[in-house]
Amino acid sequence: QSALTQPRSVSGSPGQSVTISCTGTSSDVGGYNYVSWFQQHPGKAPKLMIYDVTKRPSGVPDRFSGFKSGNTASLTISGLQAEDEADYYCCSHAGSYTLVFGTGTQVTVL
Amino acid sequence: QVQLVQSGAEVKKPGASVKVSCQASGYSFTGYYVHWVRQAPGQGLEWMGWINPNSGGTNYAQKFEGWVTMTRDTSINTAYLEVSRLKSDDTAVYYCAREEVGSSSFGAADIWGQGTMVTVSS
């Protein structure tokens, strides 16, 4: 199972919006509405930000939103804040209750 | 408080095995899958598999079939990951994470352990 494809990095100024793409195939992203997104700060464990493509766990700001079209999912961070600077990983069901992660995207707040 | 606490860092020689533990507290251990995910230094996340602590059933990523074993001890609310025949490229932080059994979701691991660094070096 190959890793999902994400841009290596994206950046934006405080208050702006950034969008991270996550491209897979019809066997993973395109085949299931089970895409999640994780935020990871340096030296820390990942944190769940979005699950089931669009749902936010309790406590995650509504600045974070998810979307999917075909084989590509995306995470948008609106009103970018300094604490949003981190690595972000998408994750998808890849059939037979297995998972595959994306390659990861570094978000920089300018 | 809901948490997963993992065992400490390990240094192993190539060819050896390592067993990492993940102890759950603050919730019903048997009600949540335990996923194992690893991250090599400076690299991305890699899903290894899950165990259902209630049944003991497992599901491994194809890459790890045959050399990774996930087990659990429900008497002490602990899941284990054993990696055998270690190579230098198994050097990584190994994380456990929980996900609710029987929910309508999949991939929604909401609580993670702090990670266990495993270094493989001769």
Give the secondary structure arrangement, pairings included.
The complex is a heterodimer of chains A (110) and B (122).
Chain A lengths: L8 E4 L5 E6 L11 E6 L6 E4 L13 E6 L2 E6 L8 E8 L5 E3 L3 E5 L1
Parallel strand pairs in A: 1-9
Antiparallel strand pairs in A: 2-6, 3-4, 3-7, 5-6, 7-8, 7-9
Chain B lengths: L2 E4 L3 E3 L5 E8 L6 E8 L5 E7 L6 E3 L7 E6 L4 E6 L8 E9 L10 E2 L3 E5 L2
Parallel strand pairs in B: 2-11
Antiparallel strand pairs in B: 1-3, 3-8, 4-5, 4-9, 5-6, 7-8, 9-10, 9-11
N-C termini distance of chain B:
40 Å
Number of strands of chain B: 11
Please write the string of helix (H) and strand (E) elements of chain B. EEEEEEEEEEE
Rg from Cα of chain B: 14 Å
Please give the count of helices of chain A.
0
What's the shape of chain B? globular
Please, what is the average pLDDT of chain B?
97
Structural class of chain B: mainly beta
What's the assembly state of these chains?
A: heterodimer
Which protein chains make the most extensive interface, counting residues with beta carbons within 8 Å of the other chain's beta carbons?
Answer: A-B, 29 and 25 residues
Structural class of the helices, strands and pairings of chain A?
A: mainly beta
What do the pLDDT scores of chain A average to? 97
Biggest beta-sheet profile of chain B: 7 strands, mixed
Q: List the uncertain runs of chain B.
A: none
Q: Termini separation of chain A (Å)? A: 35 Å
Number of strands of chain A: 9
Strand content of chain A: 35-45%
